[in-house]
Amino acid sequence: MGCIILEINIPDMTGVKVCQKIRNRFSVFPMVAIYHE
């Protein structure tokens, strides 16, 4: 599984855990974190 971050560049993006953290932080913007398998 991977993760695509829009408008946000995170060098630590190495897995779903980071994506979940981002989604939790930007829960107001659900389109910021997009998951793809």
Give a written overview of the molecule:
It is a single chain. This protein is of the alpha+beta class. It has one domain (2-36). Helix content is 27%, strand content 22%. It contains one helix and two strands, in the order βαβ. It has a two-stranded antiparallel ribbon.
The geometry reads as: globular
Largest sheet: 2 strands, antiparallel
Kindly report how far apart the N and C termini lie: 4 Å
How large is the share of residues in beta strands?
15-25%
Into how many domains do the coordinates divide? 1
**Helical segment count:** 1
Give me the secondary-structure category: alpha+beta
Largest sheet strand order: 1-2
Order of helices and strands: EHE
**Structure summary, number of beta strands:** 2
Oligomer: single chain
Give the low-pLDDT segments: 28-32
Please tell me how large the radius of gyration is.
Answer: 9 Å
The average pLDDT value, as a whole number, equals 53
Helix content: 25-40%
